UniProtKB/TrEMBL annotation:
Cofactor(s) of this protein: Zn(2+)
GO MF term set: oxidoreductase activity; zinc ion binding
Domain annotation Enoyl reductase (ER): ranges: 8-311
Lineage of producing organism: Bacteria, Bacillati, Bacillota, Clostridia, Lachnospirales
SUPFAM superfamilies documented for this protein: GroES-like (SSF50129), NAD(P)-binding Rossmann-fold domains (SSF51735)
UniProt entry tagged with the keyword Chloroplast: no
UniProt-recorded name of the protein: Galactitol-1-phosphate 5-dehydrogenase
UniProt keyword Zinc present: yes
Keyword terms of this UniProt record: Metal-binding, Oxidoreductase, Zinc
Family label: Belongs to the zinc-containing alcohol dehydrogenase family.
Length: 353
């Protein structure tokens, strides 16, 4: 089979490798689609991976084609999204259902082979979120991972009906966070970004968007909220400037959700540090999503929302390629030759190439 393999920093190759055979509880999935995550770019070009060679890609979905355990034969032919984290099951986090905080986890696409391939070996059916409605597309299912991250951020922000929300960052996670905020009942949702292409893309999907490179973002947010400020600010860029803006635009007693991974030194201005205290702002961190059944499995709920049509995600996909074009797509994104919202590998594109 073909697979996009990382052999070292900057050394990404499309190769022919042996198709895996499932044993025990393992399940073989034929990949339908796999998304490029923002974390994949530094993994390929700057930071490297934990093991080499590695088939990267952790945002994926596909069809079950083989099983190692006869008890899993009911899964054959079914579409499913994949929860890529492989928890140890023994640490305190795992024993309390917080699998994304596992102390000794493995991970498809970053620590073991993932979805940028024709097939991927899934550890067990526990990692699968099957689609009940066959009409849901592979493109939609491969976006369940970022959909869940966005949903988790909105839940951490405790967004409720009638509230006003701002999301810093108008990429796919930001737009999905805004959509979840609307689903959760927010009466006003504002997006903020500095990239005009992203700003126009989000506006084209019906959102109120501020270009903070062209206007004072905090001032604009306060004007849009009648001077009160937002109830919840979701900081999705990982930058100090947006964190400071979040403190300035959130109301007294409001909440700030730290969603974006920091990629530079974060400096909080003295006046804003003081404002966190004076306004008694609640800060919440976000790490991935929640996969336990109680109180609610965010992955299963996301698939249900896609199937019902209440959550729309496929329109965020701006670039699609088959495996043969995937390396070039990675390079073009890294070299800023193109601006994307969501870029994916789609098995349907293989035939076109």
């Amino acid at each position: 089979m073909k697979a996009l393999r990382l052999h070292g920093i900057g050394d990404l190759r499309l190769e022919e490798v042996k198709k895996p055979v499932p044993t025990g509880d393992e399940i073989l999935m034929k990949i339908g689609a796999c998304g490029i995550c923002g974390s994949d770019l530094p993994r390929v070009y700057d930071l490297g991976a934990h093991v080499y060679p590695l088939t990267i890609g952790h945002e994926f979905a596909g069809t079950i084609v083989e099983v190692g355990n006869p008890a899993d034969e009911d899964l054959l032919g079914k579409k499913a999204a994949v929860f890529p984290l492989i928890p140890c099951g023994k640490c305190e986090a795992c024993r309390t259902g917080k699998y994304c905080q596992c102390s000794h986890y493995n991970y498809l696409g970053s620590r073991c082979d993932g979805g940028f391939a024709e097939y991927c070996l899934i550890p067990s059916r526990w990692n699968l979120v099957p689609a009940k409605d066959e009409r849901v597309s592979m493109e939609e299912l491969c976006m369940v991972e970022p959909i869940c991250v966005a949903q988790h951020a909105v839940r951490r922000g405790q967004v409720t009906g009638g509230e006003q929300v701002v999301v810093f960052g108008a990429g796919p996670i930001g737009i999905l966070s805004a959509r979840w905020a609307e689903i959760f009942g927010a009466k006003k949702v504002i997006l903020v970004d500095i990239d005009e292409i992203k700003v126009e893309f989000a506006r084209g999907r019906g959102f109120t968007v501020i270009n903070s490179r062209e206007t004072d973002g905090v001032k604009a947010i306060l004007e849009l909220t009648g001077g009160r400020g937002v109830d919840v600010a979701i900081e999705g860029t990982g930058t100090g400037s947006c964190l400071n803006s979040a403190v300035e635009c959130v109301r007294t007693g409001g909440r700030i959700v730290l969603l974006g991974n920091p990629h530079c030194d974060t400096t909080l201005e003295l006046k804003n540090h003081s404002s966190i205290l004076r306004k008694e702002i609640l800060l919440s961190g976000v790490w991935n999503s929640y996969y336990e059944e109680l109180p609610l499995n965010e992955w299963s709920y996301s698939v249900e929302m896609l199937e019902s049509g209440r959550l729309e995600a496929a329109a965020l996909i701006s670039h699609r390629v088959g495996l043969d074009g995937l390396k070039e797509l990675f390079d073009n994104i890294h070299e800023r030759k193109i601006t994307i919202c969501k870029a994916i590998y789609s098995a349907e594109e293989n035939e076109k190439e």
